[in-house]
Amino acid sequence: MIIDCHGHYTTSPRQHEAWRQEQIAAHKEGRSAPPRPAISDDEIRASIEGGQLKLQQERGTDLTIFSPRAAGMGHHLGDASTSEAWATACNELIHRVCTLFPRNFAGVCMLPQSAGVSPRNCIAELERCVNQYGFVGCNLNPDPSGGYWQDPPLGDRYWYPLYEKMVELDVPAMIHVSMACNPAFHTTGSHYLNGDTAAFNQCMTSNLFKDFPGLKFIIPHGGGAVPYHWGRFRGLAQDMKLPPLPELLLHNVFFDTCVYHLPGQELLAKVIPADNILFASEMIGAVRGVDPETGYAFDDTKRYVEQLPLSAGDRQKIYEGNARRVYPRLPARLAAVG
Ligand SMILES: [Zn+2]
What we know:
Elements lengths: L2 E7 L4 H15 L12 H9 L2 H8 L3 E6 L11 H21 L4 E6 L12 H9 L5 E4 L19 H10 L3 E3 L11 H18 L3 H4 L5 E3 L10 H10 L5 H5 L3 E4 L5 H10 L5 E2 L23 H5 L5 H15 L3 H8 L1
Parallel strand pairs: 1-2, 2-3, 3-4, 4-5, 5-6, 6-7, 7-8
Helix pairs in contact: 1-4, 2-4, 5-6
């Protein structure tokens, strides 16, 4: 089985994103948001069958761990109440996809974060998505201000109430920023990778995993700059008298394979133990073109993984085994849908 741990609903029906525009416009003008639009099952089916499902079948993957569009989370927009309403709408839509295609998608929720608002505010939505919808994880934005980094680092006690709930529910978080509103950053070109790299460093310089040995984070996009600069992080940890990185972080931190060329995948697999790599493509996401050097889509990451000199056991871990371990609720969900 091949589990893609990183997919977003980037092809959601048009009226869903249109409502978000209306909601934010209404917020700016001090009006209440209009009612949410009707979206039929047929519209959802069409958006999936012509998109994610089609590519799953073409590329030979089986299940996508699926969450709302990441850039669309927009935690810097509106306030706590608009974030709550938007997260509710987005997560409900993911639940509908997972209900219509239970064998192809497992849900992960976005959280109703807002810059400067306690992550405690996210607990109710996380509980709802896990307990009512059967979601297996959440996406946690380490920078709800959208590129201005106004909230405390992930190791700060500010975030602890949410971590306590994650551990209680036994769900991991993918650390995933949203749209950059700081013009210095391109959303997917620099802000995403900065977010990944910063999150890893924040974990390294905190007591987070001493305090929460059961907490699990997936750092997407191949871990940002981390694998490439592993020597720098090892050296920094050593200078700070910290334990070696595997002992300090690799019981809790995992990396995905959303690296869009073979040399990058080779480096990832060489530096990061197979136990800490989860297959992912983030397909129909940031990079949608075809690589003229290979003739295949940049985000067809399975093609790169196939070319890595992995043992059968390590390949199975990356494709399936690690996902089942890192998302502890996933095996029961898979068993339930056959
Ligand atoms: Zn993503």
